[in-house]
Amino acid sequence: YGYVTNSRVKFVMVVDSSNTALRDNEIRSMFRKLHNSYTDIMCNPFYNPGDRIQSRAFDNMVNSMMMQVC
Question: GO annotations under biological process (predicted)?
Answer without folding.
Answer: endoplasmic reticulum to Golgi vesicle-mediated transport
